[in-house]
Design goal:
By secondary structure, this protein is mainly α. Helices cover 82% and strands 0% of the residues. It is globular and about 50 Å long. The protein starts with a helix and ends with a helix. The C terminus is likely disordered.
Length: 401
């Protein structure tokens, strides 16, 4: 049994974070599923609806560095509680939106809340608690959180069909207050453990000296380009599959399969027992993305080719999600991880912010091949940067991998 699963106290934290991250990410997927219904009701075009992703990630990115000190001073638990208390009113405001002003204001509030509750926050909490086992703990968490789209896309579609998208927003606000908030308050530890048994994780050895600014910029470049593709494709995937000739039901079905496939890739990494560090995982997984993009560009609407795209892209993007979270562990020790993650969060979220509207605009103006070609170029550039970053790994991390 993997050590992070065998430790009851750490397992409890993983369960809390898994449930709350599923809810947090799943509820944010509204535009991906019911964007057209929202556009019709608010009298906005589809590109403007998807610009909510820009507002979300811009606000997350700008707030992320500001939270470095609160994370260090107060701990992840308190920051995540505060973020949840902000997110619920964000969904209430979204449900009451009457036009662009209130629509974007709601997403601005959700972005501020997200900087305190979404992935970076959960990784910081795990680093506080798991210490040297943080890489394995993050991998275990991501085995579950990758299912957010598979669970919530069908749920969002069904809820919206029965009660409307506005009431769906209120339901999601209730989930945060009735499930996520109590879990944070009562089940996350109030104090982190400072001393843990040694670990065999590949990322465990801490570098002897802080990495250079050049290494930081390479981390930002590789993480940002991959995030641009991942978050952009996640937002537009259903519309992209429709453009490839699938019906709405088929597009949701194929899209929902993506989460399961991503989980499979993360399981392979997790069950590998820490044999690979984040850089190695990112290089191998990153090579799958250009193959997937080319396959869909040449598919000509074939269901078999679309299925192949979902499979290859799902495996690559699933493993890359783990790599983006764990690459900093190769270069930064426990004390520096929270600050480094918060600083990386700014450019990473800014690139994520512009991904959906850019890909949607390309899709609506030029067809499906245009966003696929841009994603292909970004994926290839990320692989090149990762190969450069690989040469900068600390000697002990290189040996252990």
């Amino acid at each position: 049994m993997p050590p992070v699963i065998a430790d009851p106290s750490l397992l409890r934290v993983l369960i809390v974070l898994a449930v709350t991250q599923l809810i947090a990410w799943g509820t944010l997927s509204l535009p991906a599923v019911i964007g057209r219904a929202m556009a019709a009701d608010l009298e906005m075009d589809l590109t403007a609806i998807f610009a909510s992703t820009t507002v979300l990630y811009m606000s997350m990115g700008l707030c992320s560095p500001l939270l470095a000190r609160p994370f260090v001073k107060h701990g992840g638990r308190r920051v995540m509680i505060a973020g949840t208390l902000l997110a619920a009113p964000g969904y209430a405001l979204l449900s009451a939106a009457q036009g662009p002003l209130t629509y974007y204001a709601a997403w601005l509030l959700l972005g501020v809340a997200g900087s305190a509750t979404l992935s970076t926050a959960s990784y910081i909490v795990l680093n506080e608690i798991a210490g040297l086992r943080a890489r394995s703990a993050i991998g275990a968490l991501m085995l579950v959180t990758g299912l957010s789209s598979s669970i919530f896309w069908p749920v969002t579609s069904a809820l919206s069909a029965h009660i409307g998208w506005r009431s769906t927003c209120l339901v999601y606000a209730g989930l945060l207050l009735l499930i996520s908030l109590p879990l944070f308050v009562f089940l996350l530890p109030r104090r982190v453990r400072d001393h843990l048994p040694p670990s065999s994780d590949a990322a465990a050895p801490a570098p002897a000296s802080p990495p250079s600014r050049g290494t930081f910029y390479l981390l930002v470049g590789a993480s940002g380009l991959n995030a641009f593709v991942a978050f952009g494709m996640g937002a537009v995937l259903i519309e992209l599959l429709k453009a490839e000739g699938l019906s709405a039901a088929e597009a949701v079905g194929f899209g929902s399969m993506l989460g399961v496939i991503q989980i499979s890739a993360r399981a392979i990494d997790f069950l590998g027992g820490g044999r690979w560090d984040g850089i190695t995982t990112a290089i191998v997984a990153g090579l799958a993305l250009p193959v997937a993009m080319l396959l869909l560009m040449l598919s000509d609407g074939s269901h078999g080719a679309i299925g192949g795209f979902i499979l290859i892209y799902g495996l690559g993007s699933g493993a890359l999600a783990v790599a983006r979270a764990t690459m900093p562990l190769v270069f930064y020790d426990k004390a520096a991880f929270a600050k480094a993650s918060a600083q990386i969060g700014l450019p990473l979220n800014l690139l994520s912010a512009v991904s959906a509207p850019i890909l949607v605009e390309l899709l609506t103006r030029y067809g499906s091949n245009a966003p696929l070609a841009l994603s292909l170029a970004c994926s290839c550039a990320a692989v090149v940067i990762l190969l450069l970053l690989r040469q900068r790994r600390p000697m002990r991390a290189t040996v252990s991998s």
